[in-house]
Amino acid sequence: MSQFDNVSVVKKANVYFDGKVSSRTVIMSDGSSKTLGFMQPGEFEFATTKKELMELNGGEWQVLLPGESEWQTMTAGQSFNVDANVTFQVKVTDFADYCCSYT
Fold first, then answer.
1. Which of 43, 58, 63, 102 would staple 97 via disulfide (CB 3.0–4.6 Å)?
2. 96, 50 contact by CB (below 8 A)
3. pLDDT at residue 2, rounded to an integer
4. What's the rounded Cα separation, in Å, for the pair 98 and 81?
5. What is the CATH number of the domain that holds 52?
6. What is the pTM of this model?
């Protein structure tokens, strides 16, 4: 899906890691939410409170998922799922344009 129709967008940005990661919250018509974000180069660790689907729209990243010992390289069009109440790591060398859906 290249666009979301009939949504609300939270005006204030979510800014993390000294501004290297930022996103905007999008509230869907059914009440579910997503964030549309951008990561600059760096290494980041994220903690989840809900299940997440992370979709990479542009760029490239390496991810280290919970319980894994090998980093996975992903490019635009690829995605991964993460359970609630876990942490995962991301390395970005150029940029990462992403969509995170919460379930």
1. 58
2. no
3. 81
4. 13
5. 2.60.120.10
6. 0.93
